[in-house]
From TrEMBL:
This is TPR repeat-containing protein. TPR repeats lie at residues 221-254, 256-289, 300-333. The lineage of its organism: Archaea, Methanobacteriati, Methanobacteriota, Methanomada group, Methanobacteria. The keyword Repeat applies. The keyword Transmembrane does not apply. Keywords: Repeat, TPR repeat.
């Protein structure tokens, strides 16, 4: 997470451009829509002018660096040459901040953010570690919110590789400052760790936090989605259904995952007609997304979701085809929304083969998923696979 910082000294040359850049950055960050991108480009121009007027202020370079990172994310690999250059330029800016002031320790977290968004999670963690060696200085100079953001960011990097260590960092982040992002991520991590009571409590906090914001980010609906999952596991199906409908209302597109979960909630509630209708809607919306992709929903995630809908409808051959497509397209190392879709789709394919009565194929595919998870040390994934192991013995 990149938190803007303010120049706390007396009036400096270039500060007006810097403050203008901060305002534009705050409007454009994490939006991914044309207006947001336009504001970020304007912010970059403002920071460029600030640096031209006064090339000796580390904050100016730092903020230009984190603005550049808004154009980079491993979700969108392979990167263009322009994006590759932005990544390198951001690192140069963070290093320049440290050259100008070797005690500008927050720049290390900027380097961590750069490597995280590029997809180099272990490198990102190393830079966050460097920053946190100077925890007291950061808290004094930049405040508790900045320190909370660094702990959140390191936790998120651990979470990218499904490490349970993320929980420790998220919890520490909240002790310093209650960021809404931390609440959302911690609720998901608790759920993945099987800590259901903590997950539902944190989900309540996450939903309250995102719904009280002035501006809804594109993925805020996932707070309701996570709480809906918790309610299903707690057998509170009416609450789950309410949350999932609310999530559909605020989501920037018809996310088939929400329709899939609605189908599961109605099925477990005993309403087979509404369950079937939602599974069919899930398949319909998935087909639309495969034809006209949405940037928040890569094709491999859609194939996996549609495969699950087919499974629920007993259309196992269709499910097999979709899980194979998901496994083929999913990145080997990069997650999406803290799910490792390579192993997730292989797991679902194995379960489908079991339903078809082909235990030999099921075991082979399941073992492949587990081998990948063990090699990459995907702790949350391994927890789920270990719970399922007895089904494939």
């Amino acid at each position: 997470m990149c938190v803007p910082i303010s120049v706390s000294t007396q009036k400096l040359e270039g500060e007006d451009y810097y403050n203008k850049g901060i305002s534009l950055y705050n409007v454009g960050k994490d939006r991914f829509d044309p207006e947001g991108v336009s504001k970020l480009k304007m912010a970059l121009k403002a920071f460029n002018k600030a640096i031209k007027d006064n090339p000796y202020v580390p904050e100016f370079y730092y903020m230009r660096g984190i603005t550049l990172l808004q154009f980079i994310h491993f979700y969108f690999r392979p990167f263009t040459n322009e994006q590759e250059n932005m990544f390198l330029k951001s690192l140069t800016d963070f290093k320049k901040s440290l050259t100008l002031n070797n005690q500008f320790y927050i720049a290390y977290s900027g380097m961590g953010n750069a490597h995280d968004r590029y997809g180099l999670f272990d490198d990102a963690i190393e830079y966050y570690n460097k920053s946190l060696l100077h925890e007291d200085e950061i808290k004094e100079k930049n405040g508790k919110e900045a320190l909370a953001s660094i702990y959140f960011s390191r936790g998120r990097a651990y979470h990218r590789t499904l490490k349970s260590r993320c929980i420790q960092d998220y919890e520490k982040s909240l002790k310093y400052y209650e960021l809404w992002q931390t609440k959302m991520h911690l609720a998901t991590a608790y759920l993945q760790a099987g800590m259901l009571k903590k997950a539902i409590k944190m989900s309540d906090k996450a939903v309250n936090a995102v719904m009280s914001k002035e501006y809804q980010a594109p993925w805020d609906y996932r707070a309701l989605q996570t709480r809906g999952k918790c309610h299903i596991l707690l057998h509170d199906y009416d609450k789950a259904i309410d949350d999932l409908h609310r999530a559909l209302d605020i989501a920037p597109f018809q996310d088939p995952d929400l329709l899939l979960l609605l189908g599961e909630a109605y099925r477990k509630k005993g309403n087979s007609e509404k369950a079937t209708n939602n599974f069919k809607k899930c398949i319909e919306k998935s087909a639309e997304l495969l034809k006209h992709p949405h940037q928040m929903k890569p094709k491999y995630t859609v194939y996996n979701t549609r495969g699950l809908a087919y499974m629920n409808l007993g259309l196992y051959d269709n499910a097999v085809d979709d899980f194979k497509s998901a496994a083929k397209l999913a990145p080997e190392y990069y997650p999406h929304a803290h799910t490792h879709y390579k192993t997730e789709s292989l797991k679902n394919l194995a379960l489908t083969y079991m339903l078809l009565g082909n235990k030999q194929k099921a075991r082979k595919v399941f073992d492949k998923a587990k081998t990948i998870a063990e090699y990459q040390e995907l702790e949350f994934t391994l927890r789920e696979l270990n719970e399922l192991s007895s089904n494939f013995s």
